[in-house]
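Changelog note: in this version the structure field was regenerated for every chain. One regenerated record is shown below for reference.
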Amino acid sequence: MGDAGCVRRVRVRDFCGQIERTVDVQPESCVADLVRTSLEQLNLPRNSPDGALVYRARHRGRLVPPTDRVDDTLETNDEVIELIPEPTAG
């Protein structure tokens, strides 16, 4: 786990692996905040027409709950998070 107060650097990819950006977030942030910040930086649509978040984070093949803390999910800087589209009722 990282130190509180430092910035966690995360490599974020879209689900196709075509777009990748490095995103800096606070380690105490929740994964949902990381997803929102990443969507803005990757210029991906943020919401579905019904307003639900349409992407989830996957780390090492596991979907990460949006309420998990970044620091509890990632062990080091520069780990990869993939943004996976999540079907919404609509």
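Spot check on this record: The mean pLDDT is 84. The longest helix spans residues 31-42.
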